[in-house]
Design goal:
This protein is mostly helical and about 200 residues long. The chain contains 9 helices and no strands. The chain has helices at about 5, 10-20, 20-40, 50-65, 75-100, 115-125, 130-140, 145-160, 160-195.
Length: about 200
C-alpha cells in the first residue's frame, strides 16, 4: 500500500477528530452544521450555508494538523465561526461601498476628503470596458437573501460557473483597487506640490 493511500481524506480527518465511531462522528458533524447555520442566520448572514462550509473547511484543516475536537467540538468551531463572521462582515461592507460607488444615482458626499477618492474611482471605472463595468454593476446589484440567487442567475447568463464568475469579479476589483491606489497616490503628491508653491 502506498503512503498516499494511507493518508486520510480531509473529511475523514475531521470525522476522526470528532469521534472514534464514524457513524457517531457523522451525526455530530450534521448537528454542528445545524448549530452553526443557526448562529450565522441569527446574526443576519444571508449566505449562512456558505459561511458554515468555510468554517467546516477551516476545522478540517486543523483536524489534518492533528487537533482533537472530541472534548468540546462546538465551542472550537464557534471560535472559528466568529473569525469567519468578522471576515464576512468586512467583505459585506466593501461590497456595499462598491455598490454605492457603482450606483448611477450616487451623489458625491460633501466631505472634501471623499471627493478625490470618488474622482479617482470614476476615472478608474472609465478605464474598464463597458462589458466589465456592466458585469460589476450586475454582480453587486442584489443584496441580502437575493444575492446568492442573483449571482447564480448571472453566472448562468454568462454561461460560466459561479467560481469562474467570482474569480472574474475578483480580478476586476483587483484592477480597480490598483488603479485607485495609483490615482490617489498621484492626487496626494499633487496636493503636496500645490501646498509647497
Amino acid at each position: 500500500m502506498s503512503s498516499l493511500a494511507a493518508e486520510p481524506l480531509p473529511l475523514e480527518a475531521l470525522l476522526d477528530a470528532l469521534h472514534e465511531d464514524p457513524e457517531r462522528a457523522a451525526e455530530l458533524l450534521l448537528d454542528l452544521r445545524r448549530k452553526l447555520t443557526t448562529v450565522f442566520e441569527s446574526r443576519g448572514f444571508a449566505d449562512a450555508p456558505e459561511l458554515v462550509d468555510r468554517t467546516i473547511d477551516r476545522a478540517t484543516r486543523k483536524a489534518t494538523e492533528g487537533v482533537d475536537l472530541r472534548d468540546q467540538p462546538f465551542p472550537y468551531l464557534y471560535g472559528i465561526a466568529r473569525f469567519v463572521m468578522l471576515e464576512a462582515g468586512r467583505h459585506q461592507q466593501r461590497e456595499q461601498r462598491l455598490h454605492y460607488q457603482l450606483s448611477a444615482d450616487a451623489t458625491p458626499p460633501a466631505d472634501d476628503e471623499e471627493t478625490p477618492r470618488l474622482e479617482c474611482f470614476r476615472r478608474c471605472l472609465a478605464k474598464l470596458s463597458a462589458a466589465h463595468r456592466e458585469l460589476l454593476w450586475r454582480y453587486f446589484d442584489a443584496s441580502g437573501g437575493r444575492r446568492i440567487a442573483h449571482r447564480k442567475r448571472l453566472a448562468g447568463d454568462l454561461a460560466i460557473s459561479e467560481v469562474a464568475l467570482r474569480l472574474r469579479v475578483h480580478r476586476l476589483r483587483g484592477r480597480l483597487a490598483d488603479c485607485l491606489g495609483e490615482c490617489l497616490e498621484g492626487e496626494t503628491k499633487s496636493r503636496r506640490n500645490d501646498s509647497r508653491e
